[in-house]
């Protein structure tokens, strides 16, 4: 299945419709940017021109004073946490479903000796200020680890945290002298969906990690932005965990191209449109969603139509697609043909469920599209 012409990538044929936007591959222009590098410097000593230019470029986009390229989003989050937390005992408040807690090998506990206080949002979408206030340790009681850091993730499960809520949390954190970090791996999607201006959103945080791979399609890498003193500490801890590299322009050149081509080039908006199309198709079949579809993710409530999750990969394979579970993630290299095939898979899954007596044929009102979240830890 050919990729869309707007995201050509070495003539790769995309069958992976829904596993995630991490399956994106470098476009021809990203690969060409590597060949265009004329000077290869040593980034351990901040002497690589390509990398320095990328960091300056991201500084201009985000409005933060300094930036540091890191090898991955996990590294970006972990060196940021370690740079904020100077002396244990200390605790971090975060969403119970977030990547930092669930999918970073317990890095905050191991590298930063931090207790992680996790909170499940009552609205099943995002944390609120009231929930954070109720969860922090704001006491001199020696039985507890005082909260020194709050971590948010935006988007989380494809859901945008309202800018107004972020501002409230930021003001509270400053009042309590608690640092605020954002796992902004998909913050590009927030901006593309109209969830706020990049500089304004970033301004509410002490540090932000942004991903170049995932939906943007660069070969690798993320970047951390923050104050100059903070970024100096980030560079120190990046070195400590083995993330300082020499001629890393081969990664930072395509990273910049990815931002220019996919984010600034407006290609993320198409992924959101396709996700909304799949949302509508699912609702028309009588299904509901576990989360609202704000960006490029569609979370299907399989129980609402009686589908067994184990049937998904079987039907998807028949259509030449790879799709294993309830989450659908659309990326900029997905072609329209793949979306059509996926819609056909959805129809067959529902038809099969009905033939087994798993669900009655009925119409679901548009206002009933969102079902309550029971328990989901995937970010």
From TrEMBL:
<dbReference type="GO" id="GO:0005829">
    <property type="term" value="C:cytosol"/>
</dbReference>
<comment type="similarity">
    <text>Belongs to the threonine aldolase family.</text>
</comment>
<dbReference type="InterPro" id="IPR015422">
    <property type="entry name" value="PyrdxlP-dep_Trfase_small"/>
</dbReference>
<keyword id="KW-0456">Lyase</keyword>
<dbReference type="InterPro" id="IPR015424">
    <property type="entry name" value="PyrdxlP-dep_Trfase"/>
</dbReference>
<dbReference type="Pfam" id="PF01212">
    <property type="entry name" value="Beta_elim_lyase"/>
</dbReference>
<dbReference type="GO" id="GO:0008732">
    <property type="term" value="F:L-allo-threonine aldolase activity"/>
</dbReference>
<dbReference type="InterPro" id="IPR023603">
    <property type="entry name" value="Low_specificity_L-TA-like"/>
</dbReference>
<feature type="modified residue" description="N6-(pyridoxal phosphate)lysine">
    <location>
        <position position="214"/>
    </location>
</feature>
<keyword id="KW-0663">Pyridoxal phosphate</keyword>
<dbReference type="GO" id="GO:0006567">
    <property type="term" value="P:L-threonine catabolic process"/>
</dbReference>
<protein>
    <recommendedName>
        <fullName>Aromatic amino acid beta-eliminating lyase/threonine aldolase domain-containing protein</fullName>
    </recommendedName>
</protein>
<dbReference type="InterPro" id="IPR001597">
    <property type="entry name" value="ArAA_b-elim_lyase/Thr_aldolase"/>
</dbReference>
<dbReference type="InterPro" id="IPR015421">
    <property type="entry name" value="PyrdxlP-dep_Trfase_major"/>
</dbReference>
<dbReference type="GO" id="GO:0006545">
    <property type="term" value="P:glycine biosynthetic process"/>
</dbReference>
<feature type="domain" description="Aromatic amino acid beta-eliminating lyase/threonine aldolase">
    <location>
        <begin position="21"/>
        <end position="302"/>
    </location>
</feature>
């Amino acid at each position: 299945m050919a990729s869309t012409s707007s995201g050509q990538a070495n003539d790769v044929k995309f069958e992976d419709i829904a596993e995630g936007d991490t399956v994106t591959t470098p476009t021809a222009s990203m690969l060409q940017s590597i060949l265009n590098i004329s000077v290869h410097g040593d980034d351990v000593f901040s002497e690589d021109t390509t990398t320095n230019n990328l960091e300056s470029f991201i500084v201009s986009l985000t409005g933060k004073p300094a930036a540091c390229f890191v090898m991955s989003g996990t590294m970006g989050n972990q060196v940021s946490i370690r740079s904020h937390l100077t002396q244990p005992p200390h605790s971090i408040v975060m969403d119970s479903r977030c990547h930092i807690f669930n999918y970073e090998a317990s890095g905050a506990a191991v590298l930063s000796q931090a207790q992680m206080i996790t909170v499940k949002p009552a609205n099943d979408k995002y944390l609120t200020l009231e929930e954070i206030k109720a969860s922090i340790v704001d006491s001199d009681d020696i039985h507890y680890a005082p909260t020194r850091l709050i971590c948010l993730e935006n988007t989380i499960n494809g859901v945008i945290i309202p800018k107004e809520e972020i501002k409230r949390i930021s003001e509270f954190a400053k009042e309590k002298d608690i640092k605020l970090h954002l796992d902004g791996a998909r913050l590009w999607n927030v901006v593309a969906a109209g969830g706020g201006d990049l500089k304004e959103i970033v301004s509410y945080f002490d540090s932000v990690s942004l991903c170049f791979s995932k939906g943007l399609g660069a070969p690798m890498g993320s970047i951390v932005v923050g104050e100059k003193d903070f970024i100096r500490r980030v560079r120190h801890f990046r070195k400590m965990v083995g993330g300082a590299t020499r001629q890393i322009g081969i990664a930072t050149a395509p990273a910049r191209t990815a931002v220019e081509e996919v984010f600034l080039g407006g290609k993320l908006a198409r992924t959101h449109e396709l996700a909304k199309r799949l949302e509508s198709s699912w609702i028309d079949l009588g299904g509901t969603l576990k989360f609202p579809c704000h960006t490029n993710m569609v979370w299907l409530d399989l129980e609402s139509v009686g589908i067994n999750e184990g049937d998904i990969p079987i039907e998807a394979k028949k259509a030449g697609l790879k799709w294993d579970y309830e989450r659908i993630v659309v990326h900029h290299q997905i072609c329209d043909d793949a979306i059509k095939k996926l819609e056909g898979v959805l129809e067959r899954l529902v038809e099969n469920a009905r033939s087994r007596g798993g669900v009655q044929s009925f119409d679901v009102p548009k206002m009933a599209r969102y079902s309550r979240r029971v328990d989901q830890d995937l970010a």
